[in-house]
Design brief:
single chain, about 575 residues, mainly alpha, Clc chloride channel, CBS-domain, three-stranded mixed sheet, 23 helices
Amino acid sequence: MSRRTRLLVHTASALRRRIRASEAWFLALATLTGAAAALVAILIGQTARGVQRLLYGLAQGEHLSAASHIATVRLLALPLGGALLGLTIWLLRRRTPIDVVEANALHGGRIPARDSATVVGQTMLSNGFGASVGLEAAYAQAGGGLASVLGQRLKLRRNDLRTLVGAGTGAAVSAAFGAPLTGAFYAFEIALGAYTPATIAPVMAASIAAAITARGLGATPYVIAAGGMHPISTADYALYGLLGLACALIGIGLMRLVSLIERGVSRIGLPKAVTPAIGGVILIPLAMLSPQSLSGGHGALNLDLVAEVTIASLALAICLKIAATALSLGFGFRGGLFFASLFAGSLIGRFYQLSLAHIPNLHVLAPDDATLVGMAALAVAVIGAPMTISLLVLEVTHDFALTGVAIAASLIAGTVVRTSFGYSFSTWRLHLRGETIRSGRDVGWMRTLTAAKMMRRDVALVPAATTLADFRARFPLGSATRVVLTDAQGAYAGILPTAAAYTSEADPGSHVAALAELRDSALGIGMDIATIMDAFDSCEADDFAVLAPDGSVAGVLTEKHVRRRYAEELEKSQLELYGEA
């Protein structure tokens, strides 16, 4: 090894030690990660919008969803994009890529670089060719994926790596929207699943650095036009509360519609590589009716905020946007629902305001206020991040009174969705794949704490054909609390509490098999602690045998030991989460 190489290795090793040992160094790393995430987010946005301008003949600065008319021949870009996306699905068909929420919840923040490239590339392809999805998934994945690769190279601790992934994710969103508070709380509520003292400084530093970097480079953020400030009364809170309830129901309907279309497409039996192209063909008539149904809807949102609209035109736009978004995702296009839900929510808020205006003697809502509150309420119903969206309203309007109303409507929407549906869009997608996580909160340690790691291996085994007399001779009362029985082939045959063999009613000549418990209930050696605790609760057992894959007895677990290990690991996780470990 050359002297220069040794110096580089020594420098890298010293840097890793400093970052692992010092909060100040870790804060500096998060700040640099935020700036890098901003650069990546800018590149993603500019590339996708450049593709849209090329394919749809848009002017510089013009958004696809705000176009007044699109030539029919140009709409062939939709199935073309679907075909290209299908090709990537076919080439990368080995497994589903890990996103930032799943990575932080289950894998300690570890995201393979290939998975990040897959999500970012497919999202850019979907959005760039006009599918009704947003780029937020690409922004979040790029920022979080970049942070994950960097953190793994620096060999960060599990909780530090999760925090850095959250910081990168929030920074990318901050750069896209030009809203550092929104980006930071996106990280807290979605990527990390928690807001703790240990994560505040690095996440906020990354988000601020990203916003400053984007502004310094002259990048145009996703600006949302806001009207003037209006006085907010008690009647406003009541009426906007009803709007929050309506948005919750619509949000649940949208998420279920996506899964319904996915199941329908799956039942037809078409290859996954073909379905996006078919979805692109189906989107063409919707785009002919209104270009507002295409892309994320940013241009259309700003257009509708200032335009004179009617109830009929709003109803059509709402139906087209929801249908286009559900069809895009249901037919395999990849992307986020963040901005699509903001746009659809703004339409719903304006529709609600115009509808109430026709009721005599009813309190009149300000049109732009209703638009922004509807935007916030539906976004929270779908995304599940009330503070993120509320702070977006604040950073857009600088109106604390309106933000208060938006928070109230958002909390109503979020509560209804959480209690009646239980998932946000990102976790609903994971649920459909068989995962049970509800946020980015770290539950991966529960998956690694298995029966194999907790069981006792010194198990007393006795053939089920043993007589009680022989059993008593081998196991005097008090020598063992339980004994595992095996059949003639050595397979599990139940558990015998030792005390049961010493009752006065027991016949010394009978076989111990007659007294066995849990003959058909046992634990697999790979079961995680959550599944194990559910098994103890459902069977109301104190002990379980743990079986190897071949059916032989590998060990024994007691409920008392499992509960104690769970409490120990939970306390350890909490201490790490709050930076006290």
